[in-house]
Design goal:
Radius of gyration: 18 Å
Distance between the termini: 11 Å
Largest sheet: 5 strands, antiparallel
Oligomer: single chain
Number of domains: 2
Order of helices and strands: EHEEHEHHEEEHEHEEEHEEH
Shape: globular
Helix content: 25-40%
Number of helices: 8
Strand content: 15-25%
CATH architecture of the largest domain: 2-Layer Sandwich
CATH topology of the largest domain: D-amino Acid Aminotransferase, Chain A, domain 1
CATH superfamily of the largest domain: ATP-grasp fold, B domain
Strand order of the largest sheet: 11-10-9-12-13
Structural class: alpha+beta
Low-confidence stretches: 194-201
Mean pLDDT: 92
Length: about 280
Amino acid sequence: MTAVLLATCKELPSGDEEGESLSAALRRRGIEPRWQVWDDPATHWDALTVVRSTWDYAARRDQFLRWAASVPVLENPYPLIAWNSDKGYLADLSAQGVATVPTEFVPPGEQVRYPDAREWVVKPSVGAGSRGVGRFADRTAAGEHVRALHDAGRTAMVQPYLDDVDTVGETALIYLDGRFSHAVEKGPMLARHGVHAVEHADLFVAERITARAPTDAERALADEVVRALTSRVGTAPLYARIDLLPAPEGPVLVELEITEPSLFLLFDEDAADRFAAAIAARA
């Protein structure tokens, strides 16, 4: 039986909550899934390796990228992961004409420039699971959070808080092998002045998730993002999660998740099988 290695972290040795569903779907296609901790030195990465729940990488991004570069056959491939594991990719996509949330990047030592808004979101440019993210209506408090990120050696991102997310929610569209698979709604997570610690003890912040059918405008924007990804490396990514927020002018990209995202496979009855088919085709 052909084996596929599914990279995870030591806190989730069998993957996240969708790991069992994916493993079962792979076995139905004659693929033996083997969950392996990405930083385990005893592992030989001698088969197709699919990055899944490596959710502890953000605090050790350099180590994680050295590992990713060393894996002979990796999906998504190393160039995409290296680019996507720092949210500076938003500036690249914006320069390509993709509608994104306006973002100011503030490296350590630089002064904050606040977008024109009543409230702001401050987050680290390298992070996962919404750790270190805060919503602020006061520039003094926002500035304190920026300084906390800088003190930890991290680049801060400052974005306007888009009020419509409080009523409409965020839409996450999942693409498998370059094709739309399914979508979910992510409920608003940030209460006013709600700040998660810069180094949160958990792997992620809990979210309220429900299945959702995307609008035509959301599909069009997500398709545009996937085309930009495909042109970047010459082939469609094995998986991508495209997180969109509602804005007065239409949906905008807030995050593009192609490193280690949850793909919400449990919110569509055929999603695990579609993902397994895409993996099997590359194995």
